[in-house]
Amino acid sequence: MFRFVIRRNYVDMLIGLDNKEEPQTLEQLTKESKVNYFHLTTVIRQFTTEGIVNRDQEKNVIKISLTDKGKKIASCLRELMKAIEEEPEEKESEDDDELEEED
């Protein structure tokens, strides 16, 4: 069970990891997610504990990839974000229809 709230940056990061074929370094994730490196390491540690990401270290390079559980979560988050982003557009078009009917 999740014990934390996922911010939009982390949602984007998980979806981005799902789109990548190769594991990403922490430096790459920092640039893409626009999250402070030290804060990101804490989040990655939590995601690792929850079984969402794999964290592998080769020499001084830490590489992050999604687990099967992480891939399922990323897929669900992608669909959720699509639904959230579609809603305002539908609402605007309904408002426009109501304005046209009033004229």
Helical coverage, percent range: 55-70%
CATH superfamily heading = Winged helix-like DNA-binding domain superfamily/Winged helix DNA-binding domain
CATH class term:
Mainly Alpha
Please name the CATH architecture: Orthogonal Bundle
Major sheet, described briefly? 3 strands, antiparallel
Strand order of the largest sheet: 1-3-2
The fraction of residues in strands falls at 5-15%
Structure commentary:
The model has no long low-confidence stretch (mean pLDDT 82). The chain is built from 4 helices and 3 strands; from the N terminus they run H-E-H-H-E-E-H. It is 66% helix and 14% strand. The chain has a single domain (8-102), classed as Winged helix-like DNA-binding domain superfamily/Winged helix DNA-binding domain (Arc Repressor Mutant, subunit A). The relative contact order is 0.14. It is elongated. The protein has a 3-stranded antiparallel β-sheet. The protein is α+β, with helices and mostly antiparallel strands and 103 residues long. Helix 1 crosses helix 4 (68-102). Strand 2 (53-58) and strand 3 form a beta hairpin.
Gist of the model:
With 103 residues, the chain is of the alpha+beta class. It has one domain (8-102): Winged helix-like DNA-binding domain superfamily/Winged helix DNA-binding domain (Arc Repressor Mutant, subunit A), CATH 1.10.10.10.
List its traits.
single chain; alpha+beta; Arc Repressor Mutant, subunit A; three-stranded antiparallel beta sheet
